[in-house]
Amino acid sequence: MLKYWRLLLLLVTLLGAIFAIGLKAYPYGRNGVEILYVSGESPARGVLEQGMLITNVNGEPVNNVDDWVRLTSGIGQGKTITLMANNEQYEITTTNTTTPGIEVMDIERTNLDFGLDLRGGTRIILSPTEKNTSAEMIEQVMATLQTRANLYGLREMKFYSIKGNEGYFIQVEAAGIGRKIVDELLSSQGRFEGRITKPAAVSGGTAELQLGQNKHTITVVENDTLEIGGSTVEPNGTFTIDDISLRYLNRTGNTLMFIADVLGGDDVEIVFSDPQRSGLLPQQGGYKFYFTTQVSVDGAQRFAKVTSGVPKYIDINSGDEYLKDTEIFLYLDDQLVSNLRISADLQGQAVQTPQITGFRVDRDEAINEKLRLQTILRSGALPTNLETASVDVISPTLGADFFTSALYAAMLAAGVVMVIVFIRYRKLRIAVPLVLIGLTEVIIILGIAATNDVGVWGAVLIANIIIVGVSWWKKQETDIYAWVGAILIPLLGMMSWTIDLATIGGIIAAIGTGMDQLIIISDETMSGAERKLYTIKEKIKRAFFIIFGAASTTIAAMLPLMFLGIGLIRGFAITTIIGVLTGILITRPAYAKIVERMSEK
Q1: Three-state SS at 86
Q2: Residue of 220, 290, 210, 272 lying closest to 244 (CA atoms)
Q3: Which of 38, 175, 535, 597 is 20 to 30 A from residue 135's alpha carbon, by CA?
Q4: All residues at 6 or more sequence positions from 414 whose CB lies less than 8 Å from its CB, including other chains
Q5: What's phi and psi for 60, nearest 5 deg?
Q6: Whether 277 contacts 292, CB under 8 Å
Q7: What is the CB-side half-sphere exposure of residue 453 using CA atoms within 13 A?
Q8: What does residue 475 show for φ and ψ, rounded to 5 degrees?
């Protein structure tokens, strides 16, 4: 048996790949659905999370997405459903919705991580607006975006740095998430600013601007130009007093109007989301959302300075007292989020918990906007602006159809190859092993790409080392390439990557070159009158000389694509290289031994 130790290596590696693909742990059972996304308006928001497995609804088992839709559709408002998720029981009560607001998908039955092309979702390419952006800045941007995704509940969103001819790009992949949510979440730089309008009364050609306990004299000259501290300020001009930046807006009658920068993104320390400090209120024509933030002491002190010395007035409609001509305007990326009047009780007070409000006509839009603002403020501002270079939305149906079509095409190709090889050699014992070897290559490549398989490939590595060691001890034929493959392929198997269209393309390319090489081995050993002068081993060596030349050329062509290409091309290159290595180090030596045995007979 040791005479065929190369076949043993192939068999052990093949079994390892099969176990790596199919040996999947089911901690909560084989049946159920996986939570893909919990919407902002869902009553399960904050209770259930993405990735949890739901196995039961109201006492009825959930085996797939169809069961979930059947059991949760049209529940009705104010109804309570009992869910079993991760073996824990949860009670969810619908409020103003008739569905739980939970998107699910079927449990994956293998350890293969299918990409967006097959699973469905959104792929976005983001480009920094600043040229010559460094790799360190791109890493910082991705870290901030990852924080936003986690806070928003999109824990399976993936970010990749891509280097192109025009600089760095960021590729974002979100399986099962629609374009609208991802695009709105990532398009904002997140630069937060809080500004307060400040009036100053003009009397006798001068005005007094009070900031805290300090009072600054302003002289009005021609064309409403101001002289402040020896400097001249025209309308829309900016100046700084007491470490506060102000802009001179205009003069209306005897009132000068300024707007002061009070809060910045660094001042936001905490964004509250608890029901006491965050919520939604129905109003005429729509819904008002609100949430409270905690700002820094410096920001609160600037608030106190700007609001000091402002006259008060009483709103005749509500009877409440406010600061006259004074409002706080909250901006996000220069877009006004909310503007609020300031209560007279807050005059000169260091307020550290300002409230942000907004209004939307639709309830769902109000909830999503509140969640978006909270997420961006929590994550902080990006170090650079981003613009969307491209957005691709992939339908999961399209991906499933493609995968099914690829399987049919592979089976058809295998049949055609078997027929052609049989016609060429008139022997099934050559055609059948050739096609089977090609099939094993596909399984091994997929096994290498599988996730959570370190233990499996570790066992394969140990078994391969034992086989190689015993064959060497028993003085069997030496094959340095098979020895390298026995160690290298299991080590590569401890890696993992996503199965997408690029990976399938790489597998097809590897199989195509592999079939050529298998036919070269068959042709060199099984036919040709001029080759009868060579022994079978010499013929195999001649075949492997051609095979290694072709493999080296393929690997050399793929290496630049792996290091210099963008994401999709890189995936194609990696898969092709691993496929070629699997062929020349594992399957080709095994097939050569099969052909050698058939030639001897």
Answers
A1: coil
A2: 210
A3: 175
A4: 435, 438, 439
A5: -105, 135
A6: yes
A7: 33
A8: 60, 45
- Please list, in sequence order, all residues whose beta carbon lies within 8 angstroms of the beta carbon of residue 331, skipping any fewer than 6 positions away: 192, 193, 194, 195, 337
> Which of 186, 127, 178, 104 lies closest to 151 in space, CA to CA?
186
Q: What is the pLDDT of residue 180?
A: 58
Task: Return the amino acid letter for 390.
Answer: S
Q: Look at residue 187 in the predicted model and tell me its pLDDT.
A: 60
So what's the pLDDT on residue 105? 76
What residue type is 471 in one-letter code? S
Domain spanning 33-106: which superfamily? Answer: PDZ domain (2.30.42.10)
Show the DSSP H helices in 261-395 as ranges: 297-307, 363-379
**Directed axis angle between helix 480-493 and helix 567-582, to 10°?**
140
| Domain at 2-24+395-600, CATH from 1.20.1640.10, 1.50.10.10, 1.10.10.10, 3.10.690.10 | 1.20.1640.10
The neighbour count for residue 250, using CB atoms within 10 Å, is 11
What SS3 class is residue 22? Answer: helix
234 three-state secondary structure? coil
Residues 6+ away with beta carbon under 8 Å from 26 = 107
Q: What backbone torsions phi and psi does residue 396 show, to the nearest 5 degrees? A: -65, -30
What is the model's pLDDT at position 529?
A: 44
* Largest Cα span, the chain: 118
pLDDT by 10-residue block (mean), the chain, 601 residues: 79 93 82 75 73 86 85 75 86 70 78 74 76 77 75 68 78 65 63 86 86 87 82 87 88 88 82 81 84 86 88 81 86 78 84 79 79 73 72 60 71 77 76 82 90 90 91 79 88 84 80 76 61 55 66 78 63 85 85 72 57
Q: How many whole angstroms separate alpha carbon 432 and alpha carbon 3?
A: 22
Tally of CB atoms within 10 A around 35: 22
